[in-house]
Amino acid sequence: MARLGVALDLGTSGFRGQALDLDQNGMILSTAVTTRHPLPGANVMDHLHFAVEMGLHRAHEVVIQAVNKVIDNLRIENNEVVRLAVCGNPIQLSLFQEIEIRDLAYAGKRKLEALGVVAPKRDAQIVKARKIYGLKLPADTDILIPPAVRHEIGADALAMMIQTGMLEKDEIAIATDYGTNAEMALVIKGIVYTGSTAAGPALEGQHIEDGLLALPGAISDLDFEPGNGKPTGSLDTAAVDQPIRGRLKTYILNEDMTAQAGDTVDPTTGRLLEKGVEKAVGITGTGVIALISQGLEANIIRLPRIITSDSKIHLPNGITFTEKDLEEAGKAIGAVRAGHFALCREAGVDLEDIETAYMCGASGTYVDALKAHKIGMIPKGVKKIYQVGNSSLAMARDMVHNVDELWHMKRIANDLRQHHCMFANSKVFEKVYILELSYWTQGMPLDQYQKFLKKFGLPPLKETAGIPEVIKTVKKDIPELGTMGLAIVSDIGEQKTTVFENCIGCEACVEECPESALHMQEEEGDFSIAINLALCNGLACRRCEKACQEKVFSLKKLFTI
Amino acid sequence: MEKAEYFEKAAQHIFDVNVDAAVELAKKYIDEGHDPTEMIEKGLSEGIRKLGDLFDRGEVFLPHLIIASETMTAAVKVLEQALPADQAGKKLAKVVLATVEGDVHDIGKGIVATMLRVYGFEVFDLGRDVPIATFVEKAKEVDADVVGSSALMTTTMVGQKALEKALTEAGIRDKLTTMVGGAATTEHWATKIGATFWAENAGDTVMKLKEIFS
């Protein structure tokens, strides 16, 4: 019998798994990825909310069902699996393990003390599969669980530091995972300064009117090509304030998640100038970053305004980017910038002292690094930018291949000379975020930005010259898919059906759901409603409940077994 | 110095966000035995009002407004020492404001507090991670007209619902305007829990409160 291992990355936006053959030096056999997270909602707070409201066990059950589906889709014999390693943030790992999560669900000390919550020690450990309720693997399989340094520095952050090798280099470097929750780590002389900012979902293409997660049909990059020179009939002096005329070329993700040429349009009208191969459905986070970067350069965006006749930038297929979208994205970019600034203050260095930047996660892999650099999402003075892909899955793979990696990780966690900056408590973060907010949403000029920095006793932003070198260590966020290839698991969601007494079958709830997560069935006059948990927006949405005229619908009841 | 000259100078110091000069001026004004209320209303408030107008037109930016509001608070503190407690400056309404228990995010709530002060409201900012009982106690103590709560996490939104209930049980909900805000909240949420209104941001809060109190 073969000895197989499974590496598992439990991410906030979805799960990724790989099967390895341990008898063949850890050769990758197959890969499976889910298109979303199985729990309702789009961020860790939604996942925690579900666990708090519905019970930890119920949340664990939903997570484990999805894990089982990922393993099934690896197309291996489950009874040959001797080892599984997980990696992810402490919230996902705690749900997987079914241990206390309330210390992660609330931020105030007072509340935690009132509830009598004791934070569990999230240490490196190996447990048997039988200890993980519901996991469909042999009872004796070793489950490797990596450590968290503290709840803000989880196994995912450790993976980021270890996989980039930044801890061993003698340089000032920063690693950032650009997501809904932007995690960042600044390393200087062997000391790590970490922080995490709720940048918001705009960087993932959500909360943008025509926004989309990184899925087929999503505009993932754009190039502005100036054409026709200056605006017609204008003098040179007037031209400074005019948008530059030109063509906007789009790149769109195809079925294999590779960017292909999309249509080229006139950004002020949307007029088609050149036909592309792929058809655009929406714009994703990396596209938004590229659009803002190029829009500023072409003077079509003059913060906080968009300088077109209808104040929108036009993309192919009637997709538009509005001033409201610009504001949402600006807030997210501002949060990342304020985070970088605050970390540097904690470490006693200037932003411009940072020599190397590592971009992690899927968006960090696919974004055009130079466009992101131009709008300040990467500190201005860096000489090198590395785009390193999904470090959590790579870490899990390393542990499956060699168990010593787990203990190596534990040693690093124990020895880590770390300093966590809670941005919510940081005066520097607060001040710089207010400046960023003014810059992005009010169009505050840079000289005023500098003036207020001085007034707050903070160092000015310095001019830097030169274009950094970009090194892509991987082409895709998962570089090698294995001999049996990739399976995409789209039916991750648990289906739950409930009959509601006195339901008249009007389908108001079904129509109201923004994610099409509900379906109505009729059987002999009884109406039952089915929900797909993974599609549902979570307990913070509840538009279905509001829509019910008869007041018989209950989302919690629908969630309950 | 003529009183009119005092007022003009005070307004200018607020506009220039010159704390030392504003405090100095306030002290001198009191020493000469003038009426502190008049100084607050015709001097300091005038300066902050002017800034508010420029802010609305996009000519002055948020950090300027925040520092000006801090300058004003410092000067008012000096002037109020010369006032009997019951004669403190006239305000549009008294607002008790805080981030709910379990939540420590309060940059946005701080901006709301600043803007409300600029527009003539008296704000009691209780900070963050604030228990429901503290909201209720403070509202009673200062005889508040408005209670506002902020929640940035979906797990802490329930605190806003509990607050509505606690205010009702304390028998003061009927005479209060309640408002909820924060990234996690929506208009629907406000309606559902029985809050008077939902505000999307600081500007929205000012607009909605001014419709009620003016």
Overall description:
- The complex is a heterodimer of chains A (561) and B (214).
- Chain A has 561 residues and is of the alpha/beta class.
- Chain A has 4 domains: 4-152 and 479-489, Domain of unknown function (DUF4445) (Nucleotidyltransferase, domain 5, 2-Layer Sandwich); 158-197 and 327-392 and 416-433 and 443-472, 2-Layer Sandwich (Nucleotidyltransferase, domain 5); 211-318, no CATH class; 495-559, Alpha-Beta Plaits.
- Chain A has 18 helices and 26 strands.
- In chain A, the strands form 6 sheets. A 7-stranded mixed sheet of chain A has the order 5-6-4-1-2-3-23, sandwiched between helices.
- In chain A, a hairpin with a 4-residue loop joins strand 1 and strand 2.
- The longest helix of chain A is centred in the middle third of the chain and has 25 residues, at 323-347.
- The two termini of chain A are 38 Å apart.
- The model of chain A is unreliable at 230-238 (pLDDT under 50).
- Chain B is an alpha/beta fold and 214 residues long.
- Chain B has 2 domains: 3-86, Methyltransferase, Methionine Synthase (B12-binding Domains), Chain A, domain 1 (Orthogonal Bundle); 94-212, Rossmann fold.
- Chain B is 56% helix and 10% strand.
- Chain B has helices at 3-15, 19-31, 36-56, 62-80, 107-118, 132-142, 158-169, 187-193, 202-212, and strands spanning 94-99, 122-125, 146-150, 177-181, 197-198.
- Chain B has a 5-stranded parallel sheet with strand order 2-1-3-4-5, with helices on both faces.
- In chain B, helix 5 links the parallel strand 1 and strand 2.
- In chain B, helix 1 runs parallel beside helix 3, helix 2 packs parallel to helix 4 and helix 5 (107-118) crosses helix 9.
- Chain B is elongated.
- The model of chain B has no long low-confidence stretch (mean pLDDT 90).
- The chains are: A alpha/beta (561), B alpha/beta (214).
- Chain A binds chain B through residues 41, 45-46, 48-49, 52, 105-112, 114, 198, 200, 422, 424-425, 430-431, 433-435, 437-438, 442-444, 448, 452, 455, 538-540, 542-543, 546, and chain B through 17, 58, 61-64, 66-67, 101-107, 110-111, 128-129, 131, 152-157, 183-184, 188, 192.
